[in-house]
Amino acid sequence: MKRILVVDDEPVVRRLIGIYLGGRFIVEEAEDGEKALSKASSGDYDYVITDVNMPRMDGLSLLGEIKRRSPRTAVIVMSALSELYAAVALERGAHTVISKPFARDAIQTAMQCA
């Protein structure tokens, strides 16, 4: 079964994505980029779904580190912020960007395309 790391400082968002994808994937969580990197160093993930705006390490910095350490990991970036973040995320190697708030379909579509 494929593994996903969901990274967001909002627990409800992490749980919601876990509910959406549970049963088809092994879903693990981290509340910020630093904790996500710590988890990623101890295990391989097929996918990382990360928010942009987080304390300690933002999602764009996390994206860069994940792609540097594990280039095959598909990173999906979530953001409630401007389209500028979407363009930067895609330039840095994100698989796709999902606007927040998101619908269940957006998460499932992103996973099917990754």
Short structural summary:
The chain has helices at 11-21, 33-41, 59-69, 83-91, 104-113, and strands at residues 3-7, 26-30, 47-51, 74-79, 96-99.
Which bin fits the share of residues in helices? 40-55%
Termini separation comes to 15 Å
- Low-pLDDT stretches: none
Tell me the total number of β-strands: 5
Overall pLDDT: 89
Question: Mind telling me the C-alpha Rg?
Answer: 12 Å
Read across the widest sheet, the strand sequence of neighbours is: 2-1-3-4-5
Summing up helix and strand content along with how strands pair, one would put the structural category as alpha/beta
Could you give a short account of the major beta sheet? 5 strands, parallel
- Listing every helix as H and every strand as E from the N terminus to the C terminus, the arrangement reads EHEHEHEHEH
Count the DSSP helices.
5
The backbone outline, from C-alpha atoms, is globular
Strand content: 15-25%
What descriptive keywords fit this protein?
alpha/beta; five-stranded parallel beta sheet; 5 helices; 44% helix; 114 residues
Please, could you describe this protein's structure?
The protein is of the alpha/beta class. The protein has helices at 11-21, 33-41, 59-69, 83-91, 104-113, and strands spanning 3-7, 26-30, 47-51, 74-79, 96-99. Helix 3 links the parallel strand 3 and strand 4. The longest helix has 11 residues, at 11-21. The radius of gyration is 12 Å and the shape is globular. The two termini are 15 Å apart.
Write the layout of secondary structure elements.
Elements: E1 3-7, H1 11-21, E2 26-30, H2 33-41, E3 47-51, H3 59-69, E4 74-79, H4 83-91, E5 96-99, H5 104-113
Helix pairs in contact: 2-3
